[in-house]
């Protein structure tokens, strides 16, 4: 393949990766931090409160 095509494809990957991070990962982390501050527990403990069927070590 030609070099310009490889650079173009890798550039498109970086754009797609950045959009994925901004639109999905950052809001999920924000919600997790806010729920942790509200419930004073980690993510497993929060699931144990909100969805009791998923209880496990998060109960401790």
UniProtKB/TrEMBL annotation:
InterPro entries: SNS_sf. The chain crosses the membrane at residues 6-31, 38-57. Keywords: Membrane, Transmembrane, Transmembrane helix. It comes from Dreissena polymorpha. This is Uncharacterized protein.
């Amino acid at each position: 393949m030609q070099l310009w095509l490889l650079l173009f494809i890798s550039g498109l990957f970086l754009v797609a990766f950045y959009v994925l991070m901004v639109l999905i990962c950052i809001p999920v982390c924000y919600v997790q931090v806010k729920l942790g501050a509200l419930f004073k527990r980690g993510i497993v403990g929060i699931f144990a409160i909100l969805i009791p069927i998923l209880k496990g070590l998060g109960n401790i």
